Queue: 2 jobs
Job 1
Amino acid sequence: MTLRDYLKIARRWALIVVLGCVLSGGAAYLLTARMDRVYQARAVILVNQRENQAAPSLQDIQGSQSLTRTYAELVTTSNNLERAAGILGNTSLKTLQKKVSAGAIPETQLIEVLAEDRNADRAALIANTVAGLFPGYVEEAQLAGSEARTALNTVFVAENALPPEDPIRPNVKVNVILGLILGLMVMVAAVALIEYFDDGVKEREDIERMAVPYLGSVLLADVPKGADKREWVPSILAAEPGDDLIESYRQVQASLAFGLMASDVRVLLVTSPGQGEGKSTTAANLAEALAESSRRVLLIDGDLRKPDAHRYFSLPNSSGLTSTFLVDPQALPAFVNHVGESLAVLTGGPVAPNPTELLSSRKMKATIDALAQLYDIVVIDCPPMLGLADASLWMPLVDGVLLVARQGKTRRSALEDTIAAVRAGRKPLLGVVLNGSDRKRHFRYGYGYAYGYARRSPQ
Ligand SMILES: Nc1ncnc2c1ncn2[C@@H]1O[C@H](COP(=O)(O)OP(=O)(O)OP(=O)(O)O)[C@@H](O)[C@H]1O
Ligand SMILES: [Mg+2]
């Protein structure tokens, strides 16, 4: 994959990834908004060590700081907190131990007493009570071990706690940012997984990477309002002049015409890896587009199991290719329907019970050869290449092959296998048509303007 491929993937998924991030950021905000607010209040205690001389030495200062650390530990001892719990009331020692913490402020003789509570005023009250009781507690402890009151260290409250305005938890900003980052990571991982496992042929580059000619893309046609979805078929005969669908087939036909000229192919097999990828649609419309350039074109429905070509031209299918087995080559033209000045169609005819036998018979070869004499180009709509022997049996009867890949449906691996099968059949592969392309991808390459036709806005 090149940097361009990565950029393309990023562009394709950008909107969904952004949406995912916004959703997870929004969810983080809502969850945070529902969480209980916790406030933290802070009181400060100053520790003054008993002085032995007028000017304190470095050792005295270091001693004071170490004493401050010791006293900081004493703030949260159960003796001190138990007294605070008694004064505060309605709270146990255990709860206070969870709510109160104390620590020496580095390089100072200050102790910071922190108290947390869901109520800002109560947080301040707890901090002030614990800090306020501490000097008395220290004094008692010193008196118990010393007789001279003057030689005592002094401890007093340097700053009372005030009720805090903002909670310390939860932090809405941080949580929303974390939500956005998490959403981004999940979305990027999901996109990477989807792209890794998505083996569908999506665009021109997927085909070009297989080192086969790309003939162009055909638009995904919209089913007209009121039409029966099962019966309707995209046909350039039924489309209005200048329609994007016609333009896309003309573009493919123009590329194909070069291939036909260069390779001298006159009997062209249209197939695809799997079912429903648009073989019949492509064969019928390309036959029509080729006939527009005043070549005599014959479309043969070569799908002996599921004939379809008659539907595109509203023809009866009571007789067709399978019926020609019973007649002499001279009678063949009688089975052919003339649907335009230059276009003729040989429908599939009644479904045969033994298509593989028919296809490998000498009679079939003679029939195709005889018909090829009567037309400039013969297009054969064929069954899928993979899973059935029919397409391989058609191979010796034709001069060249055109493959159809359906955007998003045809697997890249299946297309590669089909290309390999065509190469094994030693017939020239004129190229691959990307069928059912979405408008965005289709028009990225400027199709629709190639011949100067106006592009209609989508219905
Ligand atoms: N470009 C297109 N835009 C819209 N619909 C399409 C297009 N190409 C094909 N279809 C629709 O897709 C369906 C399958 O198309 P089609 O019959 O041509 O495929 P197929 O490969 O010949 O199928 P099968 O393997 O059954 O012979 C049909 O309903 C057809 O109308
Ligand atoms: Mg078909």
Job 2
Amino acid sequence: MLKVKKKDKVIVLRGEDKGKKGEVLEVFPDKGRVLVSKINLVSKHTRPTAARPGGIQKKENPLPLASIMLICPKCDRPAKPRFDRLQTGEKVRICRRCGEVII
Ligand SMILES: [Zn+2]
């Protein structure tokens, strides 16, 4: 189980976007990378098509999991979650700061 999943809020710990927050758009577990909204933007040159004119488009680039930290939705602070198992057997993440289950 990874520390983040889709729609999590995360903060960037290093690199050009250090300190910025975004929402997880996609997780790539096999690559150990995540795609975060408006973080690690790269310019892509696109060819004109019938649907849209060509030009330069900004697009997110996946960044390593080590470069981000989960923001707990309950206490709104960066938190390294610990994992626990509910009575139902479901694995959940728990905020080390406030002790709340992070869905
Ligand atoms: Zn918390």
